[in-house]
Amino acid sequence: MSELKNKIKLLIISSLDLEDMTIEDIENDQPLFVDGLGLDSIDALELGLAIKKEFNVKIDANSEQTKAHFASVDALAEFIENNRS
Amino acid sequence: MKFVVDNFSVWIAPEQQISGLESLPRRELNLSWVAPMQRRRLSQFMKMALHCMHEIEGAQTQAINFSSRHGDLFKTSGLLDAICTDDALSPTAFGLSVHNAALGIFSILNNNTAPMNAIACGNDSIISALIDSYARLRTQLCEQIMVCHADRALPSEYLCFADERQIDHCIALSLQLAKAGECYFSLEPIDLEPTTEPSELLPISIQFAIALYNKTPETILFNNQRAWMLTYHAG
């Protein structure tokens, strides 16, 4: 699981152009949006696309649960682990 | 068409040597005033435009006319490549590829809610922006207006369509109507059959920048279709 979390962090950094960051700068349980890492709604779309491509998971943009899956690296890892095809 | 240029900023890619702009200070683009989380999304095209507009924006926000012949073509061609290879389009690249994206970002960063307009008119784009700006000043829609023009050298796959020199450049200037006793520029269309080879023809925006920078008394601005006389009238 920690390997997956590091992969997710690297994907966040590369797909969102967070050039000055390293995986050590992102905590597993840190909120990704607004007050935490400070990502915004465009980042959410970009990250959703990158995760779909990298891990071949389906993301339902209309689902209420999607927001919870994107809350932190921990939540994303759990979601990917449970939905990878 | 008579107008006063209060202030202007020119940025040319440092590796380019332009006759008439040899003494123009070669500077790095300054985006230090943009928060890092916003800066990370900016393309070279946007950085050029924001750098020059920021240098002109004074204490008072002003209306802006933005022009570009090709817009952020590297971004657009990247999107077209993705479509051709059946890749998903990047939402960020898509959102920032529209012609007024640089203006939109600038207005958000500066909390500038003044009217803004984005123009594309082939190799006459900056002239169209100047005419539109003059019309806004003459009809008293505003007392002052910024014109910003940016273009990049074409991506390699489009170079076969080039009809002028390919240079990354941006110019921004603040315009007002001329008042009695002030130095001003006038711009009038003239009849001229251009004979310059495309490989030697500078974009009109750069010809205009050279004339502004040097306050040249008379300059013929021309492309392969039309020509204008730009005259500087010292007060």
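Chain B has one domain: 2-180.
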